[in-house]
Amino acid sequence: MISAIASGQGKTTVTAALARHFTQAGKKVRVFKTGADFIDPMMLQQACGSPVLSLDLWLLGLPACRALLAEAAHQADIVLIEGVMGLYDGAPSSADLANAFGVPVLAVIDASSMAQTVGAIALGLRDFGPVQLAGVVANRVASAGHLSMIQSALRDIPVLGSLARQEQALPERHLGLVLPDEVADIDTILNQLAASLIIDDAAWQAITRVDFSEQDLNLPTVPRLLEGRHVAIAKDAAFAFLYPANVQALMDMGAQISYFSPVADETIPDDADAVYLPGGYPELHAEQLGRAGNWQASLQSFLTAQKPVYAECGGMISLVDDLIDQRGDSWKMAGILSGTITMQKRLAALGMQSWISSAGELRGHTFHYSTFACSLVPAAHTRRQKTQDQGEAIYRLGSLQATYFHAYFPSNYVASANLFLTASQD
């Protein structure tokens, strides 16, 4: 488990550097990401070369987490789990996940403005829970002398690795890292991170191995509720927030999957039975989306035929009348949902939520920097995980369902299948 005292310490950078380092050394590496996240897993997949799935006790449940970890442990030489926020933040936390399976924790500590105090932080992270702390990766280290001071203060906690301050870091924007496909020299950056990472091989070899049995691999059979159904998924730079597990869930339920690009003005496939519009960055591609007449006409025809369309967050944003970006410029969208989306610089909503339907609880999260002003009356609302208070609005218009909520399909296969079978979730 790669964790820290807080966000911003360099967890993703260090996890990516470790993944690329061990991959280049000929090891098979599997990486997971704790919590609800789309962007970090894309960067980590670029670093290790294999899909990065979510691993979260609330989103998935303990049996599913155990099965995913067991499968990865049987397939790979090294399994890394990037935590979320700080080690003990959230309920359940990254520490809870690590302790549930006896996974040792590696603490990433930004040492740029400290030296010996790294020791106090490491001891606190280890003992507060406690957790099985395997060691520390000191990030943003200034010199060999700086690293020596850190090592002397850590007592019985090993420095498993260190990473110097980087001239070229992983680029970021308002929702997190820039998507790897948009960074021309991303592999150069990852290779440089791996080359700059100093590893204590003996300390790594001493880390306690976590063993799983064959029984741990067992998961319930997925119901084939979408057998024979063709689900078309929007996928491009504007519609990029797509859990790999969601796509796999659709296929496991029997669906045929295809992709199309609204940004490229591609139409929905003629033989599609349902459409999935995931989240992403429509605000960065508003001009192209507004001019995508072929895509918009195919969507209107699809809805006129009363075929199900499920749109979440960025997918919903692309369907409104107008989108006002952070510069204040206004762009015409598809005009399906009457109203205006306004981007803002401050966070509008963040956190885990549930959609309660007749098929049970469908879990997921919300994370957006925009507001939706409209006259539509929500058909339902999600519930916030922590308080059970009212969460995101769910809008229904004909065969369309739209919401800011990002669903995690494996949390409830029946409820997820219903999104693509019917226009109604009770």
Automatic annotation (TrEMBL):
<dbReference type="Pfam" id="PF07685">
    <property type="entry name" value="GATase_3"/>
</dbReference>
<dbReference type="InterPro" id="IPR027417">
    <property type="entry name" value="P-loop_NTPase"/>
</dbReference>
<keyword id="KW-0460">Magnesium</keyword>
<dbReference type="InterPro" id="IPR011698">
    <property type="entry name" value="GATase_3"/>
</dbReference>
<dbReference type="Pfam" id="PF01656">
    <property type="entry name" value="CbiA"/>
</dbReference>
<dbReference type="InterPro" id="IPR029062">
    <property type="entry name" value="Class_I_gatase-like"/>
</dbReference>
<keyword id="KW-0436">Ligase</keyword>
<keyword id="KW-0547">Nucleotide-binding</keyword>
<dbReference type="InterPro" id="IPR002586">
    <property type="entry name" value="CobQ/CobB/MinD/ParA_Nub-bd_dom"/>
</dbReference>
<keyword id="KW-0169">Cobalamin biosynthesis</keyword>
<comment type="pathway">
    <text>Cofactor biosynthesis; adenosylcobalamin biosynthesis.</text>
</comment>
<keyword id="KW-0067">ATP-binding</keyword>
<comment type="similarity">
    <text>Belongs to the CobB/CobQ family. CobQ subfamily.</text>
</comment>
<feature type="domain" description="CobB/CobQ-like glutamine amidotransferase">
    <location>
        <begin position="231"/>
        <end position="411"/>
    </location>
</feature>
<keyword id="KW-0315">Glutamine amidotransferase</keyword>
<protein>
    <submittedName>
        <fullName>Cobyrinate a,c-diamide synthase</fullName>
    </submittedName>
</protein>
<dbReference type="InterPro" id="IPR004484">
    <property type="entry name" value="CbiA/CobB_synth"/>
</dbReference>
<feature type="domain" description="CobQ/CobB/MinD/ParA nucleotide binding">
    <location>
        <begin position="2"/>
        <end position="174"/>
    </location>
</feature>
